[in-house]
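Let us begin with a simple case.
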Amino acid sequence: MYDDISQPESVAGAMALYKKDLDKYKELDEDEILNKLSAEELKQLETALEEMDPENALLPASMRQKDQTGKKATGNFDRDGLLSYLEKEAMEYKDREDVVPFTGERKGKVFVPKQRPMESRQEEVTTLDPELEEALSSATDTELCDLAAILGVHTLVTSTQKYDGNTKEGFSNVVKGEKMTPVFDEPPNPTNVEDTLQRIKSNDASLTEVNLNNIKNVPIPTLKEFAKAMEHNTHVKKFSLAATRSNDPIAVAFGDMLRENKTLRSLNLETNFITGVGVQALVDALKDNDTLTEIKIDNQRQQLGTTVEMEIAKMLEENHNIVKFGYHFTQQGPRSRAAAAITKNNDLGGGWKGTCRGGAQTVSWPIIASHLTMRNNFSQSPGLISLCGILVLCQTMEQGILNLNQHLSRREITGIALSYKLKLIRYPQ
C-alpha cells in the first residue's frame, strides 16, 4: 500500500488530487454555514472541538472563555461607540463642589529630623623600625605576598592581585575556569504513530513495546483507536502514554481495553489531564484484570481526592498481581493501605511465583498445595513447596502447615518453617 505512494510520480499525483479537493472548499462561506446551524448542532460542534483540543491551545486567549450566561443580547455590541459615550458622559458630568474651599494653608510645625554627629574612626598608627620601614617600602608585590603567606595573613592579598594572572608581577592566578559541557535538548520521540497503530491492529509479533511519550500532537480519536486496537492484541506487553495531553475519554477507553486484553503487563499514563473520573474508570477495570503488573497514573492536572484514593487502595488490596503502582497519595490512610498491599503483592510475587520443583508450569500457592496433596498425600513422604525462591520441606497436613485458601508471603512461610523446625532451601530464581 505504501510502495506506490513512495514513487515520485505517485506523490505528485497525490498532491495534485489533494489540491484539487481543497479548491472546492475555497468558495465556501464559513459564516453562512455556521448561521444555518441550530443551537444543538453548534453545541455538538463545540464538543467535538473540545475533544480535538481540550486546552484550546489553537484559539487565541480572548476566545477561550465560554459564555457564562444564557441571556440574549439586547443590541449589537459596538466597542468604539461605547468608549466614546463613556468619555462624553465623563466630560459633561460636573464635579461636586467642595464644602470648604482649599486655601493651601499649612498648619502645624514642619518635621525636621535631628542631625546626628558623624563619628570619625581614628586608625591606629603603628611605628616600625626605620630599617623595617625601608625594607617594606622597597619590597615588590611578589615579596609582600610571600611574606603574607609565611605570616598567615591572607587578607593582605587583594582581589586584583589574586585573579590577575596575565602579568608577570604579582600573585599568580590559581583559579582556572572549567569548560562547561553543553547540554542539548532531548530529541523528539521517533515513534511513527500511524505505522505503530497499523502494527497493533495487525497483531505484529515483533512489536512488544509501544512508546508514545511526549508526542503532544496525537489527536484524541487516534488515541482511542490505539485503545480499541489493544483489546485484541496478544503481543504488546508495555504501553507508555506519558505527556500526550490525554484526558478522561482516553482513560475510559483504556479502562475498557484492560477488561479485554490479557497480555499487557505495564501501562504508563503519567503527566496528562486525567481527573478522578478517568482514574475511577481505570480502577474499576483493574478489578477484572489479572495480568497487569505495573501501572503509573501520577502527575495529573489536579488532585484525585480522598474518595478516588480510597478506591485505589481497595483495588490494590483485592488485586494481587499489581507489584508496581506509580502514584503519590495525598492522604495518609489510602497511602498506608496501598503500601501494605503493594508490599504483600511483591512478597507473593504477583500471585504467580510459586512453582513445583518437579513441574514445568508456573502456578499459584493454592494450586501447588492441592497438587502436592494429590501427589504425595502428605502421609507417605514430605512435600517440597517453592514460593518466591524459598523451598520448604513440609510435613503432614495434620500439623496445620498449609492453608489452601490463603496466599502466604515470604515472611509468613519463613515463620511457619521456623515454628515447625522445617528445612529452608534457597535456589536461584
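The second case is a distinct protein. As before, the sequence precedes its C-alpha cells.
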Amino acid sequence: MKIDLRRLILFLALASLLLTLTNSLFASFRVQKTSLIDGTLEGNHAYATKIASSVQELLTLAQQQLQYSAKVLSTQLDDAKVVEAEAKRLKQQTDTFNSVVVANDTGLVLATDPDLGLIGRRLNSEGSILARQARAPLISPPFVAQTGRLLIMVSHPIFDNSNVFRGFISGTIYLQEASILSHMLGKHFHKDGSYVYVVDSGRRLISHPDPGRVGDVVENNPAINDVVAGNSGATELTNSQNVQMLAGYAPVPGTGWGVVSQRPRETALAPLSELISKVLLNALPMTIFIVVLIIWSARLISKPLRRLAESAAVIDRPETARDIENISAWYFETAHLKKALFTGVMLMYGKLSKANTAAETDSLTGLANRRAYDAALELWKGNQTSVAIIAIDIDHFKRINDTYGHDAGDVVLKDLALLMKACSRREDLVCRIGGEEFLILVPDAKLDAVSEMAERLRNTVERHVFDHVGHITISLGVAMGASHVSDIDALVKLADKMLYLAKNNGRNRVEVAQHPL
C-alpha cells in the first residue's frame, strides 16, 4: 500500500523540521559563541582604550603642572622659601602626586612635600639619575625610592634664563599604596574575574588588582608583548594562573605603557547554555503547532510572504509603504521581513529626501543653491504670478578676505544669510548664487514693497556688526516682472544690471528698475 500525500507531506515536513531545528540550534550555538567572544574582546579593547586615554590625560596634566612649577622656579631656585612654597602648592592643589621633590643639578634635595626627611640629602635613585641625565620631561620606570617605596616619578627640568640646567622638580605616584593611579584603576575590578592592569615598556606591572604583583616582569604574554610594541587590539590568551582570558589592550601614547583589560573566557561564555535552552524551549511549541497544521496553514503562511514579495517588486511606488504596513504578518519570519522591508523603504525615502535637500542647499550658508534657484525659475516660467528679483552683492568682499582671512569671510556670509532670511518673507526664496552674490526671488509682491524690503535689508546690514570684521555694506538691484513673465532670464539680467548700477553709483545703495519687464 502506497503512502498517501497527506502522510508524505507530514513525513517530509517532520523530517525537514527536525533537520532545520537541529541545524538552527547548532548554527545558533556557533553564532552566539562567536558573538559572545567577539563582543567581549571588542568590549575589553574599547575599555582598555578608554582607560589608556584616561591615564594619558592624567600624565599629561601631571607634566603640565610640573612644567608650570619649573617655570616659576627657573629664576628663584636659590630662594629656599619660594622653593618650599611652590613644592607645597603643587602637592596640595590636586591629588595628582603622593609627594613633590625639588632637587638641584647635583641631585641635592631642596624641598619636599610632605616632609620625607630628604632635604639636604643627595638623591641617587634610578628616577632622579634619569631626570638629571635626560634634562627633559620624563616619566620614569617603576623603581624603589630612597624612602623604600615602589613608585614612578614624573619630572620636569628647571633651566634658568640662560638656559643652564639648574635642577628638576618631580612628582611621585606610589604603586603599592593609595595614589591617584590606584584610585583610577582600582575600581575596574569585577566579581566575575574581570580586571585591568597596566605595564610599562619593560613589561613590568605598574598596576594590578593584586598589589603583591606590582613591579613583577611578565614574560610570554601575547597581549603585553603586542601592547608594549605600541599596538592596540584584542586576543585570546592563557594567563600566568593558567586561566583562559579574553583580553583587550591599548597603549598609553607617549609613555611606552600599555593597559590590558581581560575577562575569563568561561565567564564570557556562561550565558551560552541558557541562551540555547531558551531558544529550544521557545521553538518547541511552535514546532508542534506547525506539524499539526502544516497542510491547512500552507496558504495562510504563504499569503503574507506573497504580499511582501509583491510589494518588494513595486518598491518605488509611493503607496508601497502603506501597503506593507497593512500586511497582516502574524508569525515571526514575516513579521521581521515586514519590519525589515518597511524600514528599508522608509530609509530609501529618507535618503532620497536628504539627498534632494542637500543637493539644493548651499553647504556654507544653508541657503538655496543654484540648483534650487534654477528649479524655482523653471517653476515660475509662464506662471500667472508676478515675480520680483533682488540681486545682492557684498561690497569689497575681496578686501575682507584679504584683510581678515577666508574664515572671517565665511562668517560674514553666514551672518548675511541670516539677515536676508530675517528681512524676507516665508514664501520668498533666498539663494546664494556664488561667492558673495545672492538673489532673493519674491513672488506676489508689489514693486514698492519689494523696494522697501531691499532698503530695509541694506540698512540692517549696514548697522549690523559682523564678528572679526565690523561693519560692511551691500549693493542691491531690484527688478519686477509682470504677472505673466515668460522670459524670467531677462528679469534676472535686469536685476543684475540694477545691481551693477548700484555699485557704479557708489555702492551701499539700492537701484530699482522702475518699469516692470
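The first strand starts at residue 99 and ends at 104. The radius of gyration is 38 Å.
Keep these points in mind for the review questions at the end of the chapter.
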